[in-house]
Specification:
heterodimer; A: 124 residues; alpha/beta; 5 helices; 5 strands; 19% strand; globular; B: 283 residues; 3-stranded antiparallel β-sheet
């Protein structure tokens, strides 16, 4: 299973790699801003099964990229992954096409639970 | 006295106390778990280490507050929303929509190990979603637990930002929880709306003690509790559940638990990956 991680923080990419390192069936693809993510998704070779998308990023933010990502891969779950935690933010993300929402900070079991809800893949 | 002797005596003392009070058995297989909980207890009570805690207990006995905390820690409160999804699929699809399809009386549900509330709130979420979709059922959930602390937390319907994210999809969180400022954290907490909590009552109850009159139930959830009990205790608790289930009612145990050798009053049913027990009708 391929998970496309879109976040401008290298630390978050490292954290996710550490949390998912033991699962050989999971491969992470990395992107560091919304524009790069939209370009990747619109290319012919994009094959990720789900997307973890940060909100605040340079060039194109996650919330701006969300409708475009959703348009290109409507069947792939997109989980917003952000420290923004107001109910208004969560509502906005879900309205714009996010399947689920994961608030930072999160633990490994929360991440695995969100992956299970999104893809059915039970890693716990 | 050597450290290993100290450790062995201490574990013997605490495991005997826990078994006497709660029936939960700590043996070689989960000794490390007891050790870890004793370390937590020592830290919580401001002892430098478990040896200092043990020295105090030998000198002055275990004080009531420390005993209550110990029993609280000894019971496993690990939980999440919709833990073992297949059980909740059974509850919705088979139990509510088929077994209770024509039932117009109040459906009585008992969560016998409520912990911090994720199980009963998950059931209430299913009922609320069904209600919004047009299947309106009259129901109540009795939430009981041996621990006063976790039960108090459950009765408030309050969950931390970490707790609310375990197993609960954000769309459901938005619909059925309000965000509130947390007293103990810089992150917000989430409170269940009355649409969920209005159907619940909370009662402290030790499954091994005599039970008050709590009526009969259509379904009892007692997951991952009896696994820690002796065979005799298991038989005794299950026999009492049997008396409290309505004819054809269901008993739901944990995924690794079974009634094999404990009771012949039930028929095992498999619903997808969920294995549940249906009380046999009169012969």
């Amino acid at each position: 299973m391929k998970i496309f991680v879109v976040d401008d923080s290298k630390a978050v990419h490292r954290l996710l790699e550490e949390m998912l390192n033991e699962f050989s069936q999971i491969n992470l693809e990395h992107s560091y801003n919304g524009r790069e993510a939209v370009d990747a998704v619109t290319s012919n070779c994009f094959e990720a099964d789900m997307i973890l998308l940060d909100w605040e990023m340079p060039e194109l933010t996650g919330i701006e990229a969300l409708p475009e990502l959703k348009k290109c891969c409507s069947k792939r779950p997109i989980i917003m992954m952000t420290s923004k935690n107001s109910m208004a933010d969560i509502t906005e993300a879900l309205t714009k096409g996010a399947t689920d929402y994961m608030m930072k900070p999160f633990t490994k079991d929360i991440l695995l639970g969100k992956i299970k809800l999104a893809t059915g893949e039970d890693l716990q | 006295m050597t450290t290993s002797t100290t450790n062995s005596d201490m574990l013997k003392y605490f495991s005997a106390l826990i078994e006497k009070e709660t029936g939960i058995q700590y043996r070689d297989t989960n000794e490390h778990q007891l050790n870890s909980r004793l370390r937590d207890l020592a830290k919580f009570l401001n002892f430098p280490d478990v040896e200092a805690l043990w020295a105090e207990v030998q000198k002055n006995g275990l004080q009531p507050a420390a005993k209550s905390l110990m029993l609280d820690m000894a019971t496993n409160n690990e939980t999440s929303f919709f833990r073992d999804q297949e059980v909740f699929d059974f509850f919705k699809t088979h139990f509510i929509l088929k077994t209770m399809a024509t039932n117009t009386n109040k459906i009585r549900i008992w969560c016998a190990a409520t912990s911090t509330g994720q199980e009963p709130y998950s059931l209430a979420l299913i009922m609320a979603e069904l209600s919004r979709a047009g299947t309106n059922k009259y129901y109540e959930i009795l939430c009981s637990d041996i621990s006063e602390r976790v039960l108090q937390q459950a009765s408030k319907g309050l969950f931390s930002q970490l707790e609310i994210q375990r197993g609960l999809p954000a769309p459901l969180m938005l619909k059925y929880f309000d965000q509130v400022t947390s007293e103990s954290s810089s992150l917000p907490s989430y409170r269940a709306k009355p649409e969920l909590s209005a159907h619940m009552t909370f009662k402290r109850l030790n499954l091994l003690d005599p039970w008050p009159n709590i009526g009969t139930f259509d379904i009892i959830f007692c997951r991952n509790v009896l696994i820690y009990q002796s065979v005799e205790n298991k038989k005794q608790v299950i026999a009492r559940f049997t008396k409290m289930l309505a004819p054809g009612g269901y008993l739901v145990l944990g995924g690794a638990e079974s009634l094999l050798g404990l009771s012949t009053d039930y028929t095992m049913e498999q619903h997808g990956r969920a294995c549940v027990y249906k009380l046999k009708g009169p012969a």
